Amino acid sequence: MYALIEYKGKQYKAEKGAQIQVDLIDAEKGSKIDIDTVVLVSDGDKATVGTPYVAGAKVQVVVGDSMKDDKVIVYKYKRKKDYHRTIGHRQQYTFVTVENIVGA
Fold this sequence. Notes:
This protein is mainly β. The protein is built from no helices and ten strands.
């Protein structure tokens, strides 16, 4: 059984026991979160697609560790104008573990 969930504007495939990397969550490690924005639930033979979300379906996850991704360097340059800027960015992520999928 798996579900497609929408969380913080992005879609993820959630299977029981799977670890998913999502954008940073402001919650303590070990806390439980219910995600009710389920787009699709499939149990092998039958798939339920929501319009836009499946009514009554939710995915229960446990918050894990947080981490920073590798630095991305952005270099801006305009020729003949003596303009150049270097900017770096490190995106922060949180790992969540899917504990249970409650289908409708």
